[in-house]
Design a protein that fits this description.
single chain, alpha+beta, Ferric Hydroxamate Uptake Protein, Chain A, domain 1, 4-stranded mixed sheet
Length: 241
């Protein structure tokens, strides 16, 4: 009378063991698609991995997700209507999800697509990072859409509008901030790389896809602190590539 439960327990163990021992040998891909013009989500973009039958389409929030992908070096294909087709190489790992940030100019007229791994230094130092920081509420941001509405304005005009003091002498202009009561030149960055303070004289609004302005040190994001003991505010510019 006591053997039946034991047999049932053994059968249950036999059923559970193979499933429990299985490992996820496939990879996953997820991310968001946004406009490189204004940062808004873009729906209806197809994301596919070449050599497989796996694909996804971005939804109303710009999100997409693909599962059951082979690991290793793969090529992602991005399709939007009849106007845009783009390929990008990625590395997938079994049991892991790779998250991408995709920026598209859906009119395909000005900006090349940007595809980067989210939450990486490369993402931070790209237009994708610009739109992520824009959601933080710190600083002042000018998107390509904003800049196109004021093509004849200079960068100095944008900075003055943002409350930054600009000093010009003999044709050389500097953006000035304050570090503990000391007046100093703000740090300037172009595509994530620090440039001299007098680069302000060379920057053209019609060459830029985005500008972010941090008037005070406390607003400056960590990615713009590199090599600086104490930043005196910062201006980050992103070029139209």
């Amino acid at each position: 009378m006591q053997r039946a439960p034991l047999v049932s327990l053994l059968l249950l163990s036999m059923l559970l063991t193979p499933a429990h021992a299985q490992r996820d040998t496939t990879a996953r891909l997820a991310g968001t698609v946004r406009s490189s013009i204004n940062g808004l989500p873009v729906s209806g973009v197809m994301i596919a991995v070449k050599g497989t039958r796996v694909f996804g389409v971005s939804d109303s929030t710009g999100s997409f997700a693909l599962v059951g992908l082979p690991e290793g070096r793969q090529t992602v294909r991005i399709l939007y209507g009849d106007s845009l087709s783009y390929e990008h190489n990625i590395d997938l790992k079994q049991g892991k999800t790779l998250t991408l940030s995709v920026l598209l100019d859906v009119a395909a007229t000005e900006l090349a697509p940007i595809v980067v791994e989210a939450q990486t230094l490369r993402a931070d130092r790209s237009l994708a990072g610009f739109y992520e920081r824009k959601k933080s509420g710190f600083g002042r941001y000018y998107t390509l859409e904003d800049l196109k509405r004021r093509p004849l304005e200079t960068l100095q005009t944008l900075l003055l509008e943002s409350g930054v003091r600009v000093r010009c002498r003999v044709g050389q202009c500097l953006a000035l901030g304050s570090d503990g009561g000391r007046v100093c030149a703000m740090s300037l960055f172009l595509d994530g790389i620090r440039v001299p303070p007098d680069y302000l004289n060379l920057a053209r609004v019609d060459d830029l896809a985005g500008v972010e302005v941090y008037k005070v040190p406390i607003e400056v994001p960590p990615e713009f602190w590199s090599g600086l003991r104490s930043p005196c505010g910062a201006v980050a510019m992103w070029s139209r590539r």
